[in-house]
Amino acid sequence: MKRFIAGTLAAVVMGGGLVLAKDVNKIVVDGSTTVGPITKAFAEYYMGKRPEVNITVSESGSGNGAKSLINAACDVATMSRPMKNSEMKAAQDAGVLPIEHIVAMDGIAMVVHPGNPIEDLTIGQIRSIYTGAIRNWKDLGGPDRPIVIISRDTNSGTYECFETLVMNKQKMTDKTEYVGSNGAIRQRVMSTQGAIGYVGLAFREGVKALKVNGMEATPETVLAKTYPIARPLYMYTNGRPAQDSPLYNFVNLYDTPEGKKIVEDTGFVPLK
Amino acid sequence: MRLETRKLLDRSFTGSGILAIVLMAAALIVLLAPMFIRGAGAIVFTATVEHRRLMLERFDRGNRPQLEAEIEAARKAREPVYRMLADFEQFFATTVPETRRQYEKPFREFKKAVQTLLGPIPGAPRPMLMRDQYGQTRWDRAQVKLSRALYREEWDYSDPTRSGIMRLKPRSADFIGTPLEPLFPYLEKNIDGMLIPRRTVYWQFLTDTSFDSHFFGGIWPEILGTFYLTVGAMLFALPLGLIAAIYLTEYARETRFIEMLRTCISTLAGVPSIVFGLFGLAFFINTLKVSSSKSVLAGAMTLALMILPTVIRAAEEAIRAVPATYKEAALSLGAGRWHAVRTIILPAALPGILTGIVISMGRAAGETAPIIFTAAVSVGKPLALWQVFTQATPALSWNIYNLATEHEAVDEIRHVQYGLVLILVSLVLILNLAAIFLRARISKRLRG
To answer: What pLDDT, in 10s, does the model give residues B144-169?
Structure first.
């Protein structure tokens, strides 16, 4: 028994010692579920080339990614929105200097059930749906069916982008159903006839993406920002990573031909 | 009460008791049977030649000459497909612009469907993502993809007042009179030859790491992560819980303070696990900084806190159940209090304590909420023992949730999710059975 307790204590102390020695071969990524597919593919690709590096990826939302970075609990915060001033300030107070890397472009796709005959909505119509002014697809020329409004939770970067680009500071209706990830929106919309939701471009499989203001979300329209709800996807690091460190190579993968191909294959739009 | 009435009541009580047990057993079967059947599908399934190619290329598994012959045979069977695709592309390049516009989208979609089914077209640059480097590895998925290649979903929106109706349109209708027309019957007829389905037992599902965020490979990182977390939680909870239980039963006087302490422990047992998770994040990671980021260590400590009340309670009950005469006899023979506890009471209480511990291990293995913020990640490597102090890990419970909700291609990898569920449920079952077995064995030894 005594030996056991001593062993446990020793393990704890040893663990503490290991924490102090910063391991360059460990990259902790936390944040956006939208950037998740890119991050996971980047991690897989990079670990395939450098097997001694362990990259862990959590998808907990952009807000949590920012919090993690501020608490120095992650090396890379993936975010689907830029860092807010309040977060920048909190980071400075904590001695963290967030450096922004834009890894890809994304459009926020408005998705509905594939059985929904609606093809096109304007920003104004989408806003009216989310404020609760339009409650039935009938009012938009569709079938007589109440609209089920699905949104991301407030922790999400996609939510914040949607709020700025579409909602124009108006409040969402109380009837809105909030879910925790892009994948969850996709599944909810796929299985609900009257549902509408918004997701990153990589999450359109099995649902119907609508045109917005008459524009379809294609790589061209997203890059040119003629698709009205396009936005960059970010990775944030604490300070500039040391040249040629694994962290440096990982966050700069997006700028290599392989990285661009990965971004494209996961369904997002690589930067030119 | 008359005797008959009493007998009748007695019998009806027995009857309802049996009924309750039968219902419970039925519910258990209804719950567990699909889990086991579907979960087994992750390990035992009909695999295509693509699966065997993957195994050969990534792990060097299987009889190389034989497999190479098989891959060659599949390639031969696919040759007409690629030839017809090339023929069509040539036709496409030389035709008038109007026809080109007509065929452009249908052809792009069809070519993509063929690539999804059979893997990349020979001669094309190697795709970056592993999911695009191989065709369908599972026969059940291959059939879904085949039907996507042969038919396209078309939604009929002709009546705007109603929801659209989905119709399957054969893609061959889009290509009548082109070099692509004979490809559709060929695909349908020769799919067996192109994919060579064969029943496979992929037991390495348990020991392989995952590839391309769970599209291929196994669940070893998750199994190992759950193991570390559970054992780690035990390492913290066991000594603390045991010491607390010994103190509470043998040393503490029944003061108001001790009574309050007991109430607190009971309350702690009822606290929702997500609260422990957030507490773990705030206390272990952000305040104590036991590790710079999420880690197995922080997760194990959080889980330990969560199961601590159960361990204390179980140990306390087990110690109390030891007949007072044992202790009195020991004390009367001149043993000190600690000596009596160590040599008499603890051994006698051991079956009860162990049962409590093993059952709480089962709980620790299955909990998701406490490890979301403290230990679990969706993608990571299997950890070596010394890495548990600093690094986070995938874990069975969390990854089931992750694959069910957050993953971008949920439908493609359902089997992995079912496999994870099977392993987790089996793990908890085995732990509980072990508890029963241990208890029986130890109490027999003590009696004998």
So the answer is: 999 999 999 888 888 877 888 888 99
Helix (H, G, I), strand (E, B) or coil at A126: helix
Q: Please give the class, per CATH, of domain A106-224.
A: alpha beta
Predicted structure pTM score = 0.89
Chain B residues with CB inside 8 Å of A26's CB? Answer: 390-391
Neighbours of A38 (CB within 10 A): 28
Cβ contact B437:B58 at 8 Å: no
Neighbouring-strand partners of residue A232: A105
Contact of A217 with A209, CB cutoff 8 Å: yes
pLDDT given for residue A22 in this prediction: 58
The CATH H-level (homologous superfamily) assignment of domain B220-447 is MetI-like (1.10.3720.10)
Is B346's Cβ below 8 Å from some Cβ in A? no
Query: pLDDT value at position A16?
Result: 47
Domain ranges of chain B: 49-196, 220-447
Average pLDDT rounded to a whole number, residues A242-266: 93
Instruction: Return the number of other C-beta atoms located less than 10 Å from residue B348's C-beta.
Output: 19
Q: ipTM more than 0.90?
A: no
Q: The CATH number of A2-105+233-265 is which of 3.40.190.10, 3.40.630.10, 3.40.50.10170, 3.40.50.620?
A: 3.40.190.10
CA distance B177 to chain A (A): 31
Count of CB pairs separated by less than 8 Å, A with B: 156
